[in-house]
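Researcher: Next entry: GH16 domain-containing protein (Exidia glandulosa HHB12029).
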Amino acid sequence: MLFRGLTPIAFAVLASAATTVVLPTSSFTSYTTFQQYWNYLYPWGSDHNGSARMIGNSTEHTYISVANNVLTLTAKPAPAGQPPSTSNPHPAIHYFSGTVHAKQQVVVDGTSITGYDVQGEFIASTAKGTWPAFWLTAVNGWPPEADIGEWKGTQQNWFNTFNTSSAVASKIVTWPNDGQFHALKAELRPISGNTKDLSIKYYLDGVLQATHTAANFRGAAMWLILDLQMEGSSGSPGPAAGATFQTRNVQLTKYTP
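Model: Predicted structure:
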């Protein structure tokens, strides 16, 4: 029943594909395991486009912590007098928070790597001024960018595919407010007859929400980032007590011929 409706040729293609889990769901079981698969902070440093400065390393776990196979990113108000963000648009820093990025880069070239699945489960703050995200962004230049999870101060998740800075495909869905973990997934695949673009399918709790054409994503290396940014696009002021962002069962699966 699983393959009903597929032609024998399509079935043969699926059957011949090999899958490799390059980032396992066990990466948050301990700090030793975490540091095998993840780096602290953004790939470019501690600052980005919101009011949180990221802090964390192998001995500082106030803002980036793992326990019981869950990663918790925590934002807390920063002491007054912080220098502004070093990243455009150079906002004032009101919080210290946590960000991590996977050591494994994501790239689909359509030949040696024919797909990636990127998935995880999340409890994300949707309070005004909180800006957690689970996203892919270009290693070299920008875009491409694909936001698999982005919560911008409302009870919604944004699935975004940045083809250029102004050409953005977005699907906004209601995010459950039950305080439980919910699953997000993106499937990146080549498009038949197309040597430049990819298809990205976005899922919430196993249900397909959107299919985007990702222009010029083919062959582009991308970082996978988990961050708890604050204010910026999520509004201000942020919560006086700060916020948390919890993640578990993050997995990267690579497809090869």
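Model: Note for the record: The chain has one domain: 17-256.
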